[in-house]
């Protein structure tokens, strides 16, 4: 970094350029309005779902079907000679369903359309049939319940271990998800801030007074700060939305305050460093492309997605050697290591090693981005190639 004050000015300008409070305010109002409408809709659907359902039962003596007291399905026993009248009531929407029990193995449900309460009625019929079979075998419901009763295991953590809560597991996944959102936003910002300006040749005059590396450092810092601030705003809005949805009666898991503060600091550190690293990568790629609408954008954006798809399968078993190795590689450490921190045992030196390698990757990619941008501004009309980038990378790290 040749002139920190120039880098700070450029970073501040880029941040103000892309981070607009007005747009976030509009987004907040629209999201809150959507949450309110969703809450009202959910309440209406819940009220409609709790409406009593009347089902007539013929041949109730063959199978003693009964629903729970709290069930919305209300059964009424009817005789066979009432079958035609009951069918007419269903046609006039005076009756919701007609259950005809032909035998203990055959039952028919007559309705106007596929009922959303079918599962509740099937459970009641199955329970009645099971009870009849138990009675025929000489066993009571209590006897069968005793035989099938599961034995829950009480899990205790050894004093040398490190327990994790469900909240921390959700936190790890949320950090990874929001980080991906930040990468998507940063990707578009880089092509507008670097490739677009490069095509318009507006930076040539500025570079006569500012070193290219300072120019790129400022853009990387400003866009990273923009992505991070936007993600934080989205996270706050998501939390508000989740609270509103839960208030409407929809069960959602909440990440509470019982999380280990040390792990949260580790999650944040990995997420921020990963965001900076990928922004350096995006800046280097954007400096190589002369056309902002180039089809290469989609191909390049798939690269971090591909890396994530490679890392996700190892999360099923975080104790394997592959999982441990991917906890150190900068391209995958920010995905694998947070999950290992809450699901496995991580040695004290693994987190510092992952952070060190992320910092090294940031340094290399940052230097590469500056070298590519510096040379690219002098190559009018020529699309830079990966071989050119490799030569500049060797020069940047020499």
UniProtKB/TrEMBL annotation:
Top-rank taxon: Bacteria
Compartments (UniProt record): Membrane
Membrane spanning residue stretches: 170-191, 220-244, 264-286, 298-316, 346-365
Keywords: Membrane, Transmembrane, Transmembrane helix
Primary site of residence: membrane
Pfam families, per the entry: ABC2_membrane_3 (PF12698)
InterPro entries from the UniProt entry: ABC2_TM
Domain ABC-2 type transporter transmembrane intervals: 36-365
Membrane topology: Multi-pass membrane protein
GO molecular function: ABC-type transporter activity
GO cellular component: membrane
Protein name as catalogued: ABC-2 type transporter transmembrane domain-containing protein
Organism listed in the record: uncultured Chthoniobacterales bacterium
């Amino acid at each position: 970094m040749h002139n920190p004050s120039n880098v700070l000015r450029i970073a501040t300008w880029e941040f103000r350029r892309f981070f607009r409070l007005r747009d976030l305010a509009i987004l907040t109002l629209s999201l809150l309005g959507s949450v309110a409408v969703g809450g009202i809709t959910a309440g209406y659907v819940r009220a409609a779902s709790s409406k009593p359902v009347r089902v007539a039962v013929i041949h109730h003596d063959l199978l003693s079907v009964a629903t729970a007291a709290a069930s919305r399905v209300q059964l009424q026993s009817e005789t066979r000679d009432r079958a035609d009248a009951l069918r007419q009531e269903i046609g006039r929407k005076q009756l919701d369903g007609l259950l005809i029990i032909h035998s203990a193995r055959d039952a028919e449900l007559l309705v106007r359309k596929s009922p959303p309460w079918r599962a509740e009625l099937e459970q009641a019929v199955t329970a009645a049939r099971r009870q009849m079979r138990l009675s025929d075998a000489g066993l009571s419901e209590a006897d069968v319940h005793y035989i099938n009763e599961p034995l829950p295991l009480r899990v205790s953590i050894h004093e040398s271990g490190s327990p994790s809560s469900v909240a921390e597991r959700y936190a790890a996944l949320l950090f990874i998800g929001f980080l991906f959102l930040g990468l998507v936003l940063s990707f578009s910002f880089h092509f507008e801030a670097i490739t677009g300006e490069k095509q318009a040749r507006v930076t040539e005059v500025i570079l006569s007074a500012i070193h290219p590396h300072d120019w790129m450092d400022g853009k990387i810092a400003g866009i990273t700060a923009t992505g991070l601030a936007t993600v934080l705003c989205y996270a706050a809005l998501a939390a508000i939305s989740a609270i509103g949805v839960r208030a409407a009666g929809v069960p959602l898991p909440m990440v509470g305050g019982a999380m280990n503060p040390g792990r949260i600091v580790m999650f944040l550190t990995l997420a921020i460093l990963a965001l900076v690293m990928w922004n350096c990568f995006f800046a280097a790629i954007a400096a190589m492309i002369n056309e902002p609408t180039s089809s290469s954008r989609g191909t390049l954006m798939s690269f971090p997605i591909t890396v994530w798809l490679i890392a996700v399968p190892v999360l099923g078993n975080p104790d394997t050697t592959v999982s441990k190795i991917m906890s150190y590689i900068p391209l995958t450490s920010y995905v694998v290591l947070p999950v290992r921190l809450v699901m496995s045992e991580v040695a004290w030196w693994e987190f510092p090693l992952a952070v060190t390698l992320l910092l090294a990757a940031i340094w290399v990619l940052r230097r590469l981005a500056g070298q590519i941008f510096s040379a690219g501004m002098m190559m009018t009309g020529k699309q830079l190639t990966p071989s050119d980038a490799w030569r500049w990378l060797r020069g940047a790290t020499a």
